[in-house]
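Note to self: keep these together.
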Amino acid sequence: MKQYVYRLYTQDMNREGIVSLIQACGFDSFTLSQGIGYWINAKELSLSIEIISNEKANAPTKLLASAIRSLNNQTAVYWITFQVESELIGLTKEVSHEVSI
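Structure:
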C-alpha cells in the first residue's frame, strides 16, 4: 500500500509535551528515536519523530513542527516527507490497541 512518511527532527527536550502535541494533532501511531545531532556545529541530544499516514498530512505535520519549535524555543524544526510502498508483515487480524506483555 502507498503511504506517506513524515519525519521531524528536533532537540530532545520536553518529550512528554511533544508526545501530547503529536496526539493533539490526531496522530495515534508514531515512533520517537533518540540520537545525537549537530546544529551549527554544536552537539545536542536529538529526537526524530516518524509518522506514517495513509493520506497526505503535510498541513498537520507542519503545524506540529511549528508547535514543537515553539514548545522548545528553537530556531527551527526540520520537516521532511516522502511516499513509500509499505506492508505490515504478519498482520492477520484487525489491529487492537490492547497490548499484552
